[in-house]
Inverse folding.
């Protein structure tokens, strides 16, 4: 793995150069706070973030002491009841939100349902909800469900056509900031401004943004946002998502899943529903406390990092990956699907290849974990808190070997697994 090869005109970056870069990386120490199994290069933090070292001890405390020992007292004594807000306030600075504008609860899909419904109510008489056609499907499915229930129209526009699709009949746009397949960044400032100019509301999905790059919801006067915590925020498998409601809308926005946790006085057990006057109204029912509490462990790590440094490292890692793949695998038929300009790219890189699935399976078997998105995309995520420059070099070394040797042709790799 130590050799430097030459491809085309440009000298190939050496493994030692990558080690040197890691030595001056201001975020390098964060890696020690995660459990990355030996022999694994983990490039799938854009799907499921790595486990924080502190997670098992934390879970054991929640289960053994808070639940086992203190039983129901923990709703108060361990702060269980307030966790959605406590964690929301912790997360808020990462996305340019203020305290009281964010809660951690439910899934991204459910939260989007609440916010899209609220947005439609706030724009009566307008019939269109605009989303990106190639978006992660759940957002579009949720919009389709709402449209069917309320007699609205879902307009699916591709990236360059979104702005033009916004008109006086648009109730809301619902756009994912960083595209889940390509990593392309949609222009939050421009699209939000365009929506507002037409009198529409702007909802943003931050699943591939939160924890990967800075974003400033309030600077752009975004109305609503959702996102998950199990990717770059390292909350754990299926950890609860977050939702953001701009303070100026809290008095008017009303979500439709009116459960007792969103009531103004949940323990009054009033037969009639009165919404809480603040962000608590966007809660619905009893929270999955173990998972919710664990989300705080990942969030604490993220909040300790400087987001400008996170973004700078993310750009450096994705640039390095693209350069190395293009130098060392030039003859193997990979097409870069992610934007070449780092300013347009999130923290992931996607290459299309006819045999992307088999190639990814072969890499995973050799310890380099990325993922595959149909029909032909090999996707690699670079979580700046724990991915090193040398990991990028090693990943491309494995890819090169898989391609040069033809190892991906092993028929075993063609069999599709349930989760890819
Ligand atoms: C853009 C986007 N939205 C939503 C989701 C998932 O939503 P949920 O957390 O409800 O499964 C994903 C998952 O990868 C995603 O990439």
């Amino acid at each position: 793995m130590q050799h430097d090869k030459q491809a085309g005109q440009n000298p190939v970056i050496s493994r030692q150069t990558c080690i040197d870069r890691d030595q001056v990386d201001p975020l390098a120490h964060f890696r020690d706070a995660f459990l990355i199994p030996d022999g694994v290069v983990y490039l799938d933090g854009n799907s499921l973030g790595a486990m924080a070292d502190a997670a098992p001890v934390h879970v054991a405390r929640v289960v053994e002491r808070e639940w086992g020992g203190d039983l129901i007292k923990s709703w108060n004594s361990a702060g269980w009841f307030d966790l959605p807000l406590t964690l929301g306030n912790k997360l808020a600075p990462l996305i340019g939100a203020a305290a009281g504008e964010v809660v951690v609860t439910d899934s991204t899909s459910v939260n989007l349902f609440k916010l899209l419904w609220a947005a439609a109510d706030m724009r009566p008489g307008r019939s269109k909800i605009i989303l990106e056609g190639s978006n992660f499907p759940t957002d579009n499915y949720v919009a389709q469900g709402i449209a069917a229930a309320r007699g609205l129209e879902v307009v699916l526009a591709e990236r360059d056509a979104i702005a033009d699709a916004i008109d006086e009949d648009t109730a809301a746009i619902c756009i994912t900031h960083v595209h889940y397949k390509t990593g392309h960044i949609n222009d939050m400032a421009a699209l939000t401004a365009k929506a507002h100019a037409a009198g529409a509301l702007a909802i943003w999905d931050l699943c591939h943004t939160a924890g990967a790059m800075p974003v400033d919801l309030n600077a752009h006067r975004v109305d609503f946002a959702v996102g998950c915590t199990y990717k770059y925020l390292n909350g754990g498998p299926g950890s609860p998502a977050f939702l953001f409601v701009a303070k100026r809308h809290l008095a008017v926005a009303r979500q439709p899943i009116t459960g007792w946790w969103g009531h103004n006085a949940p323990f009054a057990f009033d037969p009639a529903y009165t919404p809480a006057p603040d962000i608590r109204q966007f809660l619905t029912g009893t929270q999955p406390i173990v998972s919710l509490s664990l989300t705080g462990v990942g969030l604490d790590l993220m909040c300790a990092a400087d987001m400008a440094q996170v973004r700078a490292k993310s750009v450096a890692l994705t640039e390095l990956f693209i350069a190395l793949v293009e130098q060392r695998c030039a003859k193997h038929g990979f097409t870069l699907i992610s934007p070449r300009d780092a300013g347009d790219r999130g923290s992931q890189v996607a290459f299309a290849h006819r045999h992307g699935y088999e190639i990814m399976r072969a890499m995973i078997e050799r310890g380099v974990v990325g993922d595959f998105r149909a029909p032909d995309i090999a996707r690699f995520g670079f979580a700046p808190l724990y991915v090193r420059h040398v990991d990028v070099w090693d990943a491309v070394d494995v890819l090169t070997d898989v391609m040069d040797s033809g190892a991906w042709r092993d028929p075993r790799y063609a069999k599709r697994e349930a989760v890819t």
Remarks:
- The longest helix spans residues 307-328.
- Residues 1-8 have pLDDT under 50 and may be disordered.
- DSSP finds twelve helices and 15 strands in the chain.
- The pocket of pyridoxal-5'-phosphate is lined by residues 107-109, 136, 138-139, 176, 180, 205, 207-208, 228, 241 (CB under 6 Å).
